[in-house]
Amino acid sequence: xxxxxxxxAIGDIHYASGRRVAPTPERRSAYGVExxxxxxxxFSDEEKPDVLVLPGDLLDDGRxxxxxxxxxxIRKVLEESGIPAVSVPGNHEGDNAAFFSALGDTPxxxxxxxFIIYSFSDAYGENDxxxxxxxxxxxxxxxxxxxxxxxxxxxxxxxxxxxxxxxxPYNLANAGQVHRFYAENRVFLSISGHYHPGIDLASRxxxxxxxxxxxxESPFRYLIIDIQGxxxxxxxxxxxxxxxxxDNHCHSQFAYCAEDVTVEKVIERAVxxxxxxxxxxxxxxxxxxTRKEYQNQVFFRNPGIIRKAREKGRDRVxxxxxxxxxxxxxxxxxxxxxxxxxxxxxxxxxEDREGLDLIIGAVHSLPEDFSSAPASRMQKxxxxxxxVLLKNDMAVLAHPFRIFVRNGLNxxxxxxxxxxxxxxxxxxAAELNFHTNRPAPEFFDICLQxxxxxxxxxxxxxxxxxxEFNQHRRFLEMLGVSTxxxxxxxYLLP
Length: 494
What we know:
Blueprint (H helix, E strand, L loop, with lengths): L3 E6 L22 H10 L9 E4 L12 H15 L3 E3 L8 H8 L4 E5 L2 E5 L3 E2 L5 E2 L2 H11 L6 E5 L19 H10 L2 E6 L6 E6 L2 E5 L9 E8 L2 E8 L7 E5 L12 H10 L4 E7 H5 L2 H5 L2 H4 L3 H7 L5 H9 L6 E7 L19 E4 L13 H17 L4 E2 L4 H5 L9 H11 L2 E5 L7 H9 L4 E4 L12 H9 L7 H4 L5
Parallel strand pairs: 1-2, 2-3, 5-8, 8-9, 9-11, 14-15, 15-16, 16-17, 17-18, 18-19, 19-20
Antiparallel strand pairs: 1-12, 4-5, 6-7, 10-11, 12-13
Helix pairs in contact: 1-2, 2-3, 12-14, 14-15
């Protein structure tokens, strides 16, 4: 349908890379690029919007020396997303020409499908007062007049409508004139930013008006705007979780496979995103062994090497636990992720169980190469490895069936019910985990039917994953578990 358009709208990022605390404390300016990345990562290639609109104040202060570099960082994220973007400068950007130059954008007419998105570069005066210039209205009339069959969306920073009663100038100084102009010049929808709480869609004289909430302030909202013919549907989403969720699988700076995570940085984001707690379940085999020993899977052929590492005082288990403890956060829990070894045990010394909040078991590899063997052999070895874990008192089975995905195979449907029955018999939860993984809906549907608890795990190695449960919630909603009923199915620590 030619009159259909899906827009992503992200307002008032207020990015400032050079400082941790903004002059206005509720603005999380240092997280601007990270929050932008988080939003954009939520869209798969199949779900990508047609266009992204950014109604101003991408920066917190365009006069700072980092300003151009910050805009270039934003531009890089936008380009990597593959979503066409249209931006306008706000009152915090400073020089409008420098703004457009850094972003590689221009004010004025942008054609997207059968729509015109027209971006205004408005003039700012003293005390952030803003007005629309006559020459910009004339240019608008001239450029849009060349495309009589297209719906027009006007994009600006300050509000045209409604009038906001405030000593601070949220509205354009000549808002009444601009509103009449929009009504007379077939503007279909007007999108603004600036007013951080946002304002719901309203219609006046045939023009729709929408104010996008600020991404920089909790709960860090953004909008999806779907246009179908004359209908405009607006959905609001937020980066902050709608209710306190818990992460039972998160990594730290002690993981050899860690990217930029640390205990402190993860907790910082857990607080921002409204989590109940985060359990740092570090790879036990990585804590006991050197990087080379771990990569060569020495522990599987020689389980005794873990005891020797402890006797020689070269393991890092105590250091990891101390790092979590000294974080001082009531949100922090301590756990370990263990794997089976060749002796029917797991990569965990008995004395290290004491004081842990959680132990999760994982099958990361199998002792032999099954690439040329019948599928049944790999499946049998896998199920045997899982049972070794469960016999060794695991509370959660991490990323069930991921080993098949990582070997380019589909999770074997014939194992879904046997696996669920095994988990139920041992009283072990199944982890919902999307880290390099494709969870099977059919398997988790069986788990829900059998009242097997589901454990949420981000498997965070990169800070962009910390506290990010959007996929988890959508997956469970697909299986009929609403946000309100999550507590009934989730595995939670005290």
